Every structure is written in structure tokens, then in C-alpha cells.
Amino acid sequence: MSTTDHPDDAAAPAPDTASTSDEVTIRRAPKFGVFIVGGALLGFLVTVIVIAATMNIDRGDKTETVGFSGLVGYFGLWGVTIGMAVGAVVAVVLDRVLARRAARLTAERIAVDLPPETVEGEIDDHGDQAR
């Protein structure tokens, strides 16, 4: 193998660097989607438990015309909606509490401008040329 394929390891020109300082805030933040979906699931679960617990209550001479699945379907919509709202409120409150614990730090941003590469030899132009 010849050594002409690899150029000498000459000192490459140093890149130009520019440094700036920025003040940043580091804090934890809740994922709102997780709280909203969790609230919806919890609201549906509470709805099913309440309906199952109140299905066999003696209502006197009134007869039931709607079954368990119909009640779960109807009241489940209310339970999911209320659960989503409660989950969103919990996420907002948690976000406000965690915002108070935020840390303010100074970060240094370094922008590096690399020097253009030097090409040795001939460059073949294979662009769109009219012939």
C-alpha cells in the first residue's frame, strides 16, 4: 500500500470560536397529556365503581329500564370529561409548584466556525453542462 493516498498529518488550521453567556432556567415540568389521559382513565374507573355500587339499591316501586352497560356508557362520558378536567388542573398546579423550584444558571454558548476544507488535486465538474 502506498503512502501517497494519505496526505501528511499537517497541522489543520484552528477553527474560529465565539463564546457568549446566556442565563437559562432549569426545571422539571409535568407532561400535560399524561395527566389528562390519567385523569380520564381514573374518571371512567370511578364511574364504573359508582354505578356498580348503586345498581342494587332499592328504589321502591320504580323499575329499572336501563342496564349496566347503558348507564356506564352515559355516565362514563361525564366521568371521563370531569376526570380530564381534574387531571389538567392537577398538571397546571404541579407545573406552578415546580416552577418555583427552578434554578437559574449561566450557560456558555460556543459557536465554532470551521475553516473551509482544502482540496488538493483537480476537481471534475459533472454538473449540467450544455454539450
Global geometry: elongated
Any low-confidence stretches, pLDDT <50, length ≥5? Answer: none
The SS-based structural class is alpha+beta
Number of helices: 2
The fraction of residues in strands falls at 15-25%
Order of helices and strands: EHHE
> What is the oligomer described by this structure?
single chain
Say how many strands there are: 2
Helix content: 40-55%
Q: Roughly what is the average pLDDT, rounded to an integer?
A: 83
Largest sheet report: 2 strands, antiparallel
Q: Taking strands numbered 1, 2, ... along the chain, how are they ordered across the largest sheet? A: 1-2
Distance between the termini: 39 Å
Q: Radius of gyration, Cα only, in angstroms?
A: 34 Å
